[in-house]
């Protein structure tokens, strides 16, 4: 989701991994552990059996996959709050239902579609992990799709149905920022929690970029 | 009662699939066709699942699984092809807006 | 009314909701004016419709183990459909597959324009 290498030619190339010391190797394994656990769990679910055989074969497959399809290790924040994660899931489910039926009735309704927008939202966080999760959540909710991501500036560009007024655009930005805040509360780093908390306290429209958000950045 | 609902379910699926098919045939662009065929595949997955409920079996779970896992490949391939082709021809500029500015090249 | 009947009726209603979303996606595909809008129509049976159908399957088979087998289907779909939607939206925007007269705000236009200018130099 965060691949924007072709849009911004000035972006630095991805640095190839340096030869690792023992400590770094252990750290890398620790960082990848959630991914490994997820892959093993998925493998066991696929077989539908919770046996040692499926566990061991799942481990082997997970190692093979993470070795052969190398990805830059995802930097997790090391924080997880189950309560806020549950809150996020509940809100996400509600958004999913409201969005799905909203788009469905719009398709069936007499007026059809009005005007759309391509909206830039300046996220508070700088973490790739939170940006990715926010983009996935926003894309999964019908009515908005992330079309472009600028991970250096933490700006996501989303196409949204029926945002035909400035109020609707602002409401959409607030919505995205609130999804981000919910995710940061559940999974974000302490610094991110602080940053989004400040945002939450300083009024409802704080942190919303004036559209267009970046004029003359390259001058 | 339940039989009536089942018939309604079947009708809704068929109507949805036919409308999607119309969009695949009409286009106009390859992306429209791709989106529509993606929806057709989703409709197929849902219909296979509905069939399991209606006829009370669970043989089609692997079919749903494989379809949901590989549905992405065709879409990504076409999307990549379209963007690459576009970059080669127009330099990634939306053609309708900027053709005039470039002197129609 | 037996609880079994209630469960079956519930499963049937869930099927109906899933089928309704699927049909609405077809209507949206036909009625929406440009490729980017049609993409929105496509995303809704993919997740919520699938959740409805999977819940109906789990209800009608009345076992938790079925739910575990069905979970990967939803996981795959939730992981892959944002990626494909993102790539199609990106390609659709770049190729101008949208009606700019229907755009209220377009924050991306300027950015893409500048990136194109820079790469042309």
How would you sum up this structure, described in words?
By secondary structure, chain A is mainly alpha-helical. Chain A folds into two domains: 22-68, no CATH class; 82-201, no CATH class. In chain A, 53% of the residues lie in helices and 9% in strands. A three-stranded antiparallel β-sheet of chain A has the order 1-3-2, with helices on one face. Chain B has 105 residues and is an all-alpha fold. Chain B starts with a helix and ends in a 7-residue tail after the last helix. Chain C is mainly α and 121 residues long. Chain C has one domain (3-120). Chain C has four helices and one strand, in the order αααβα. Chain C has helices spanning 3-31, 35-61, 64-94, 108-120, and one strand at 103-106. In chain C, α2 runs antiparallel to α3 (64-94). The N and C termini of chain C lie far apart (75 Å). Classes of the chains: A mainly alpha (219), B mainly alpha (105), C mainly alpha (121). Chains in contact: A-C, B-C. At the B-C interface, α1, α2, α3 and α4 of B face α1, α2, α3 and α4 of C. β1 of chain A pairs parallel with β1 (103-106) of chain C, so a sheet runs across the interface.
Detail the topology: elements first, then pairings:
The complex is a heterotrimer of chains A (219), B (105) and C (121).
Chain A: H1 22-47, H2 52-68, H3 82-108, E1 116-122, H4 128-140, E2 144-150, E3 155-160, H5 166-187, H6 190-201
Helix pairs in contact in A: 1-2, 3-5, 4-5, 5-6
Chain B: H1 2-26, H2 30-54, H3 61-90, H4 95-98
Helix pairs in contact in B: 1-2, 2-3
Chain C: H1 3-31, H2 35-61, H3 64-94, E1 103-106, H4 108-120
Helix pairs in contact in C: 1-2, 2-3
Task: Give the total of beta strands of chain C.
Answer: 1
Shape summary of chain C: elongated
Terminal CA distance of chain C: 75 Å
String of helices and strands of chain C: HHHEH
Q: What count of helical segments of chain B does DSSP give?
A: 4
Could you list the spans of chain B in which at least 5 consecutive residues all have pLDDT below 50? 88-105
Q: How many distinct helices of chain C?
A: 4
What structural class results from the helix and strand content of chain C? mainly alpha
Mean pLDDT of chain C: 82
What is the overall shape of chain B? flat
């Amino acid at each position: 989701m965060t691949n924007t290498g072709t849009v911004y030619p000035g972006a630095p190339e991805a640095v190839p991994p340096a030869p690792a010391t023992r400590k770094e190797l252990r750290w890398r394994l620790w960082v990848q552990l959630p991914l490994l656990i997820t892959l093993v769990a998925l493998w066991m679910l696929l077989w539908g059996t919770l046996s040692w055989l499926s566990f061991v074969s799942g481990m082997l497959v997970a190692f093979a996959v993470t070795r052969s399809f190398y990805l830059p290790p995802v930097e997790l924040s090391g924080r997880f709050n189950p309560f806020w994660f549950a809150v996020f899931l509940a809100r996400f489910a509600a958004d999913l239902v409201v969005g799905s039926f909203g788009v469905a009735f719009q398709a069936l309704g007499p007026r059809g579609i009005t005007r759309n927008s391509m909206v830039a939202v300046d996220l508070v966080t700088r973490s790739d992990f939170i940006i990715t999760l926010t983009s996935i959540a926003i894309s999964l909710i019908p009515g908005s799709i992330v079309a472009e991501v600028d991970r250096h500036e933490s700006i996501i560009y989303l196409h949204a149905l029926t945002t035909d007024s400035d109020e609707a655009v602002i409401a959409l930005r607030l919505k995205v920022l609130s999804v981000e805040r919910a995710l940061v509360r559940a999974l974000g780093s302490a610094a991110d929690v602080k940053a989004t908390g400040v945002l939450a306290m300083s009024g409802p429209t704080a942190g919303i970029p004036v559209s267009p958000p970046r004029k003359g950045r390259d001058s | 009662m339940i039989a009536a609902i089942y018939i309604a379910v079947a009708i809704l699926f068929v109507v949805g699939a036919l409308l999607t098919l119309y969009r695949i045939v009409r286009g106009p662009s390859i992306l429209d066709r791709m989106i529509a065929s993606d929806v057709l595949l989703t409709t197929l997955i849902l219909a296979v699942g509905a069939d399991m409920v209606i006829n009370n079996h669970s043989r089609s779970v692997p079919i749903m699984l494989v379809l949901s896992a590989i549905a992405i490949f065709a879409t990504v391939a076409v999307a990549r092809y379209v963007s690459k082709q576009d970059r080669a021809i127009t330099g990634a500029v939306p053609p309708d807006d900027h053709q005039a500015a470039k002197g129609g090249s | 009314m037996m609880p079994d009947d209630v469960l079956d009726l519930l499963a049937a209603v869930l099927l109906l909701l899933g089928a309704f979303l699927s049909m609405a996606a077809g209507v949206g595909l036909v009625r929406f004016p440009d490729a980017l809008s049609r993409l929105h129509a496509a995303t809704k049976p993919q997740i919520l419709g699938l959740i409805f159908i999977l819940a109906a399957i789990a209800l009608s088979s009345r076992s938790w183990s079925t739910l575990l087998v069905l979970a990967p289907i939803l996981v795959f779909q939730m992981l892959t459909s944002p990626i494909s939607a993102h790539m199609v939206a990106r390609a659709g925007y770049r190729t101008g597959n949208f009606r700019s007269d229907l755009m209220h705000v377009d924050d991306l236009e300027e950015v893409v324009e500048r990136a194109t200018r820079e790469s042309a130099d």
